[in-house]
Amino acid sequence: MLRESFIVGTLVLSFTMLGCPSQDPVRPKEEAGKSPNTTQLPSPLSSISTPTPRDAGYEGPVGIPADSRGRLVIRDAQPQEPTPLVPARPLDADRLANREMQGLTMTAEWTWEGVAAAPGGAEVNQPGIKAARAATRHLWQIELLEAGRLRIVFDSVSYPLTKYTELRARHDAYGHILVWPEADNYRVIPSGALRALLDERRVDTSPLVAGRTDKEQPGRPYFGFPTRSVGVSTPWGKLDLVQARTSNAGSGGVLFCRLLLELIGARPDSPVCEEGRVPVRASYAWKDGGKVVLEVSTLMIRPDFQPTMFMIPPSRATFTDVGLPPDATGLFLTREQMEAFRSRPIEPATRSDRESKGAPGEGFFAVNRTDALRFLCIDGVPVTWVPAHGEQYVIGSRPGKYTAQWRSFLGTSIEPPTEVLIPARIVLGEEPEEAGAPEVDAAL
Predict the structure, then answer these.
(1) Is residue 444 helix, strand or coil?
(2) Cα(320)–Cα(68) distance, rounded to whole angstroms?
């Protein structure tokens, strides 16, 4: 009986609870200043404690930083300071990878200022002179890699070096290598020796200085690219440099800039040379008044090059620390080209001028009695270079009156022009006294 009463009571209580309406739960009062949308997170179940933030003075190791999206930020490695090339030491084999071969191809020309023209006369053949001038243009074929390589080809017979000789450079070294036309030999040209190489056909170093830099100015566009011009002055003269900001210039443009600064005697680590820019015009004014200009006439963006063009050293080249490429005769024109300067010969009746003494029967002797290599221009055209205390025989010129002028390649030395009658012996400097000539007593 007692058990039945318990069961009935339990059922009644259950039905009573099911039939009672539900009541809203009592919400806790919201804290002042807290948004009702704030999510309450449960306490972490992990036993790992939250790390204490480092203070501002912490200098220990840190992890790789990430950006706002959680992507790792890998900083570029700082570029190493270039090391000078050593003239007496062969270079290790190059391992230029076949990648990142984009760059620029340019043609540039050296122009001599202050060159005297031909004298007047009906026999002067201007078309022949113009053709000779075109055949002796001082051209450079320039190729550079965005990744930091430079290759310059001497594309003319009128340089102190053999045609197709090359200069090469790389971004991690100061200095250049001189590559023979067949790429079978190379020689290290240390930093500071380029001016002597171009001007005197010698590998002699000169000191380099920081130089005084003018404020950069905007220049006229070259090949559609914006330019900036700047002047750099040294004790030897001043360089006015125009650089264009182009694609594919990269570190290769820096190497070309370094080379041009070295010719004025400025250090290669100058801030004037900046990645992404390439020189398009370089005007040199020397302290003694001479001038010369190098200007780029064509510029082409190249998507790819052959790596072998920029190997330093070339893969099959032999190292040498003496001499220069052979077969540089110093004679630029053929007999027929020299003959074309005049339409007909003009024979003088009698001669007593200085140049007639020791003159050949045809053409002329070019005699250099100075201590440095010099070029001789006839009617404004370079026709030969003559080594120090040497001479050249140039054949082909028809008899008549010509303009002769001596100079160095870069214009550091330019002699006044003179009119000469050819055949002639054209001498720069003082001739040595003839053997056996009687001495004159100063007391007489």
Answers:
(1) coil
(2) 56
Tokens coding 71: 């992507």
Structure tokens at 418: 């003179």
Q: 0.85 cut: is pTM over it?
A: no
Q: Which of 56, 57, 74 is nearest to 65 (CA)?
A: 74
User: Where does 12-165 show beta strands of DSSP type E?
Assistant: 83-84, 103-112, 138-145, 149-154
pLDDT tens, the chain, 444 aa long:
434 444 434 433 343 444 444 444 443 333 334 433 333 434 333 333 334 444 444 344 445 555 455 655 444 444 578 999 999 999 999 987 666 789 999 999 999 998 999 999 999 999 999 999 999 999 999 999 999 999 999 999 999 999 999 999 999 999 999 999 999 999 999 999 999 999 999 999 999 999 999 999 999 999 999 999 999 999 999 999 999 999 999 999 999 999 999 999 999 999 999 999 999 999 999 998 999 999 999 999 999 898 899 999 999 999 999 999 998 899 999 999 999 999 999 987 788 888 899 999 999 999 999 999 999 999 999 999 999 999 999 999 999 999 999 999 999 999 999 999 999 999 999 887 654 444 434 333
The closest of 376, 396, 380, 365 to 129, measured between CA atoms, is 380
The tokens of 176 are what? 């250049």
**DSSP symbols for 317-369:** PEE-SS---S---SB-S-HHHHHTTBSS----S---SGGGTT--SSSEEEEE-
Q: Which burial class, exposed, middle or buried, applies to 325 when counting CB atoms under 10 A from its CB (0-12, 13-18, 19+)?
A: buried
The domains of the chain, with CATH numbers, are 83-115+136-319 (2.50.20), 335-428 (2.60.40)
Distance between CA atoms of residues 118 and 378, nearest Å: 8
